[in-house]
Specification:
The structure holds two protein chains of two kinds. By secondary structure, chain A is mostly beta strands. Helix content of chain A is about 15%, strand content about 45%. In chain A, strands 1, 3, 7, 8, 10, 11, 13, 16, 18 and 19 form a ten-stranded antiparallel sheet that branches. In chain A, strands 2, 4, 5, 6 and 9 form a five-stranded antiparallel sheet that branches. Chain B is elongated and about 90 Å long.
Chain lengths: ~325, ~375
């Protein structure tokens, strides 16, 4: 074999084997949004936090949590360009969470990752400060997004469903829609309000995605980076569309090149006469898909290149 | 005089450490950050028109004196009538009214500092680079004496250059057409054969699929030099295409097909980025024609093609397309560093590409 052909073959071999021996690659479609907490309490749900991708280090976010007792606190730190060698150090109100070294909870696409933390014991009513320090040469957090359930006897009866995930809706994943099924029967008598809060990453203004609750259109071009670069946090009144069963939240990619639904929280409040009883908070262990694959297109092109290279080499050997 | 360069470098270094806007003859020191972003990457004091989000502004007030400051009242005049939002922050009582953001601090102890943060929405569009000074004034009492301090952050709003994307497409095509007309009388212009098109398609697929995946996946391996993982292979494959196909328009066609492939596989927005893909191809085709039909036939020409590709491609991205498409103004030094890296990648790619092309020349499909 000529040196040139050897070099080409070596390059192709390295390309094919590289994913197997080193960290970081195309991570596939990520994981769907799954239920992580539900229940009925007297109180409210707080879901917010983040000002987009700014490359600040540390990334600092202040959050004003309503008064009461924090019964559930979940912090999501979405980051760009995740690799296994990265470290993420997070403090909540000055208290350090265990360092996360190369262990994001969900990773998708080119390294859009979610780090998830139980912060129930660290979040307090009133002003909270979260600081995230991410060690990565070409990446940074998009947000520090907190979902907290606060019990307060003076507040209305509140039923809630908290979903989290990281689904890459993109042509490359061939997934255009993320459907979150609310698998519960809903008492609609005595309902005072029904509010849906969502957090999405990587939406682009002008590329029209859609968000629906059942058949009700909540918005078009919802993902348009209005809460900071690549970040959208939205709240919708879904009471007109709420049914007693088979409710669902639908994220549609539409024209978006990429969009990642990350979180959804459904909060239903009732008047005192409603036939809804307090159950407290149930925290569920979520099973997640971990994508890690070489895209089919990459393999196909490499194979084609190898065939073409082989043919050219063969033709050259046969030519006088 | 031998120490002069070192002194100049030291002064330059110190100058870089100075915050964009500072004031403080009295005990109070004011500093303004516009926008609140990592200013090693993003341009300081620069807002891009047309963002869908509010850019954050942070005003820090610090007591550098030995006695407490009391009754501190800070007001920021927001320029250009930009709408203001107030995010959650530790300092209470930050308000916005009529284009002025206000905050007050009852007592600021010696050595103590606080800050206020607010968001501003840049105008949807501006015709030219427009000054947008944020004027901060503060009044306070120090040892019972009323004092005032003021500082201005000389920010600017730059247009998003949305017309640039379309003008680049038109300009690129125009240049290509003119060049083809100019050279139409020479023997340079011949039609692409089927094997030419297959070669271009294959190389474009390698660029648009394999090496894009390779770069985005492994860019962290080289840290800040991660861009080389794309610029080197791109230059190598560009040289291969130009050298093997040997026809004017090869580079333009190559990058155009690369974009089509990227659109199909990764969902790249073809209209927004068409100009960027075309401009680098046209630049290379023009260079080849100006060189009298030297299709990377010499090592120096191959390196020159790599350099021009790196310079044009990354220059267009950082100075035109990043503000236009992403509404991001990168810091000048960061942009220059990335362009330099692309040129370096072009040199390395040109050298490797030439060696490879010469050896592969006899093996074209």
């Amino acid at each position: 074999m000529r040196p040139c052909a050897r070099a080409v073959a070596l390059l192709l071999l390295v390309l094919l084997l590289a994913p197997a021996v080193t960290a970081g690659e195309w991570r596939g479609a990520g994981s769907p949004l799954v239920l992580v907490a539900e229940g009925t309490v007297r109180g409210s749900v707080y879901a917010s936090g983040g000002h987009g991708y700014t490359s600040e280090n540390p990334y600092v976010e202040y959050m004003e949590v309503p008064g009461g007792r924090v019964a559930f606190g979940r912090l999501c730190v979405p980051v760009w360009n995740y690799n296994e060698g990265d470290t993420l150090d997070v403090t909540v109100n000055g208290q350090a969470l265990p360092q996360r070294a190369g262990s994001a909870d969900i990773v998708s696409a080119w390294g859009v990752a979610s780090y998830l933390f139980d912060v129930t014991d660290l979040v307090r009513p009133g002003m909270n400060v979260v600081e995230a320090r991410y060690r990565n040469d070409n990446g940074a957090p998009y947000a520090c997004y907190l979902t907290a359930v606060v019990e307060n006897r003076s507040m209305p009866l509140t039923r809630f469903f908290v979903y989290e995930g990281n689904r890459a809706l993109a042509p490359a994943t061939r997934i255009d829609r993320e459907i979150v099924e609310v698998n519960a029967s809903i008492e609609t008598a005595g309902l005072e309000s029904a509010t849906l809060t969502t957090m999405q990453i990587a939406g682009t203004a002008g590329e029209r995605d859609r968000l629906l609750f059942n058949d009700g259109l909540l918005g078009e071009d919802v993902g348009r980076a209005k809460d900071g670069p690549y970040l959208d946090i939205d709240t919708f009144d879904v009471a007109p569309f709420l049914g007693p069963a088979e409710n669902r939240i639908v994220f549609e990619r539409g024209d978006e090149t990429y969009i990642h639904p990350f979180a959804a929280a459904l909060e239903l409040t009732y008047d005192d006469g409603a036939a809804v009883s307090e159950t407290g908070v149930s925290v569920l262990v979520a099973e997640r898909e971990q994508g890690r694959q070489v895209p089919f297109a990459v393999i196909a092109v490499l194979l084609l290149a190898a065939i073409a290279g082989g043919y050219a080499w063969y033709a050259r050997r046969r030519s006088p | 005089m031998r120490g002069a360069p070192a002194v100049i470098l030291l002064l330059l270094g110190l100058a870089l450490l100075v915050p964009p806007a500072l004031a403080g003859d009295g005990p109070l020191v004011l500093a303004v950050e516009v926008p609140v972003k990592n200013q090693e990457v993003y341009a300081a004091d620069t807002l891009v028109a047309g963002t869908a989000w509010d850019e954050r502004v942070r005003v820090t007030f610090r007591n550098n004196g030995d006695v407490p400051i009391t009754n501190l009242s800070v007001a920021v005049a927001v320029p250009l009538g930009m709408p203001v939002s107030i995010p959650q922050q530790p300092l209470t009582g930050v308000t916005a009214d009529g284009g002025t953001v206000r905050a007050s601090v009852p007592v600021l102890g010696p050595g103590e500092s606080q800050n206020m943060t607010f968001g501003v929405r840049p105008p949807a569009s501006v015709q030219y680079r427009t000054p947008a000074p944020f004027v901060v004034t503060a009044t306070y009492l120090a040892e019972g004496v009323s004092q005032a301090e003021s500082v201005t952050a000389e920010a600017v709003v730059v247009p998003p250059f949305s017309w640039v994307t379309y003008a680049t497409i038109g300009g690129s095509l125009l240049v290509l057409i003119v060049a083809l007309l100019v050279f139409s009388r020479s023997s340079m212009l011949t039609r692409f054969t089927t094997s030419d098109l297959v070669t271009i398609a294959l190389i474009a697929a390698l660029l648009g699929v394999v090496f894009r995946w390779f770069w985005q996946t492994f860019n962290d391996l080289l840290g800040p030099f991660g861009g080389l993982l794309f610029t080197v292979p791109t230059s190598v494959l560009l040289i291969l295409a130009v050298h093997l196909v040997r026809k004017p328009g090869t580079a333009t066609l190559l990058f155009f097909v690369q974009e089509i492939v990227a659109m199909v596989i990764w969902g790249t927005n073809i209209l927004l980025w068409l100009g960027w893909y075309l401009v680098e191809g046209v630049a290379i085709d023009l260079l080849v024609m100006l060189l009298g039909g030297d299709y990377a036939d010499r090592r120096g020409t191959a390196v020159m093609i790599g350099i021009v590709r790196g310079f044009v491609s990354y220059g267009a991205f950082y100075f035109l397309f990043a503000p236009a498409v992403w509404h991001i103004a990168y810091a000048a030094w960061y942009s220059v560093f990335q362009i330099g890296l692309a040129v370096l990648g072009g040199i390395i790619g040109g050298l490797i590409g030439y060696s490879t092309a010469v050896k592969v020349r006899g093996s074209v499909l």
